[in-house]
Structures are given as C-alpha cells and as structure tokens.
C-alpha cells in the first residue's frame, strides 16, 4: 500500500550511520510517496510496537528503497532517551534514561557562579531552611549583589524540582528568583519573608543552559540568603 505524505518526514534509516563533520540539510515542505507494507520490528526476536510520545502506534515505511522508523519509538526500544529541542530543531539521543529523583548537583554541577555556595550530601554538607536541613543544592547570598549560577544541562532534562526558601539566620527579605533557559526567562518565583520553604518545579524544556539570578524585591536592602534544597531533574 502506498500513501502520500505532506510535510517534513523525519526518521531513522535502517543501516544509516551517525558521523561527525559537515552536515548538509535543507528546510522545505515536500509531497513524497512512501510505501507501507506491514513492516515488523523485532528486538531480541520479540515483536515490538513503535509508539510516539502520545502512545500511538507508528508504522515504519519505505521511501526510495530505504526503510524509515520513528526516532522516539526506535530509541525507546534501544533503551535510549530521546529529546527534541524545538528552538534548534534538533533531536538528542542519550545512552541512559534519567531516573526520577536524580540530583542535579550529582549529574550536572554548576560550571560558573557568583555569590553562591554548593552543598553535597555525599560530602556531609547541608544548610537549614524553616528549621529543616537540606542538601544536594546551593545557597545564593545577598540578593542586592545579584548572585547568579549557571548549569550546562546538555538538553537532557524537561524539569528541575527543588525546595526554595530563606536560609535560617541569614535574613528574610523578599526576593525574586529568575530562571533563564538559553537566555530566555521561563519563570520568576517570589520568595516572601517569613514564609516556610516551598517545593517548586521549573520547566527547562530540554534546553542547553540554565541560569538562575536572584534579585532583591524589598525596599529594605538588608542581607538575605536564598536556599535551593534537594534539587532534582527529570
């Protein structure tokens, strides 16, 4: 059976190799004729179904003598993680999946920061917020100095989750925490003086660079440190 597809067709060609060097690509919309012929996919002699991000079954097809398979479904069969960066129109494949509860500081420590301090549970380091101890995170000092911290996320993660609040005995002035992904502001969280720490989730949408900047949001310019505890990625 043959069908005509309108749009940009993307897939993994059976037998194709990934290489480094110059890549020739084009951006266009074409009408092509492909052949669906009930192509079956086996892994370790077990018949498998290829599915998209919504769980729908996607069937491989043949075009100009080459068999094409959907990237996500094929990567999942190979126990690989696949991510899509819409801004750069790039597909990223990773050898291992990121399990829930993975600490950011263990898999992706900051590569640059100013007026900050990091804390690792593996090294017995911790700080306190609301009378509770936290680790696997960082502390940003005195919002009036505009502290900032940078992470290279390598387009691996969809969200970061953490507990945020004022560090005990280090002031409780209001502050705004700004999260930038690849230079674009994606979320601002307001830390209110006197409140207990709260759990926050920030979408990083498989971006490359995460920058966090803390700004003073109070007319009183007294020092006040902001803590980020138990920072995990997914």
Overall number of domains:
2
Count of DSSP E strands?
Answer: 22
Q: Overall 3D geometry? A: elongated
Name of the CATH first level of the largest domain: Mainly Beta
Helix content percent band: under 10%
N-to-C terminal Cα separation, in Å?
41 Å
Q: Treating each run of at least 4 consecutive H or I residues as one helix, how many helices?
A: 2
H/E element sequence: EEEEEEEHEEEHEEEEEEEEEEEE
User: Mean pLDDT, nearest integer?
Assistant: 83
CATH topology of the largest domain: Jelly Rolls
Question: What is the CATH superfamily label of the largest domain?
Answer: NPCBM/NEW2 domain
- CATH-level-2 architecture of the largest domain: Sandwich
Structural class: mainly beta
What is the CA-based Rg, rounded? 23 Å
Give an overview in words.
The chain is mainly beta. It has 2 domains: 2-78, no CATH class; 102-233, NPCBM/NEW2 domain (Jelly Rolls), CATH 2.60.120. Helices cover 5% and strands 45% of the residues. The protein has 2 helices and 22 strands. The strands form 7 sheets. Strands 10, 12, 15, 17, 20 and 22 form a 6-stranded antiparallel sheet that branches. Strands 11-16-21-18-19 form a 5-stranded antiparallel sheet, with no helix packed on it. The protein has a 3-stranded antiparallel sheet with strand order 2-7-6. The two termini are 41 Å apart.
